[in-house]
Specification:
Length: 132
């Protein structure tokens, strides 16, 4: 089964999760995230495809890899490959912080239309809005 979701349907995802329940949680979660480009508060972007492939920009380099979404709104990013362009000072530090946030992400939630990645303790490690 393939699920497609438009940006205008994002608000309907919690209802979909309630209707599907249990095993449907992961499917509804993937529907909410998949195919959408998410923009971080900085210049970084995140795109998760329905097959679990991820790609985007760190604000300095491009990256790609995989993510696994599970029940209970869990997420784990697999190894990520990045291009190796040299960026100066703050941009390189921002890239390292962004990649660390993806590595440390263990769950996510939606809040006020934003996608929040959380670490194992529940602390927010990255915040994304819908991209262009």
């Amino acid at each position: 089964m393939q699920i497609r979701i438009s940006r205008s349907a994002i608000g309907a995802v919690p209802v979909l999760a309630i209707l599907l329940g249990g095993a449907g949680d992961a499917m509804a979660a993937m529907a909410a995230i998949a195919g959408t480009t998410w923009q971080s508060e900085g210049a970084a972007t995140l795109k998760v495809e329905a097959d679990g492939q991820v790609s985007g920009s760190t604000g300095c380099n491009r990256y790609s890899g995989s993510a696994e979404l599970g029940n209970g709104m869990t997420i784990r990013f697999g190894p990520l490959a990045t291009t190796r362009m040299a960026c100066k000072g703050p941009r390189m530090a921002a890239e390292q912080a962004f990649l660390a946030a993806l590595e440390n992400a263990r769950s996510y939630r939606f809040e006020a239309g934003n996608l929040l990645l959380l670490d194992g303790s529940g602390a927010v490690v990255a915040t994304f809005t819908l991209g262009q």
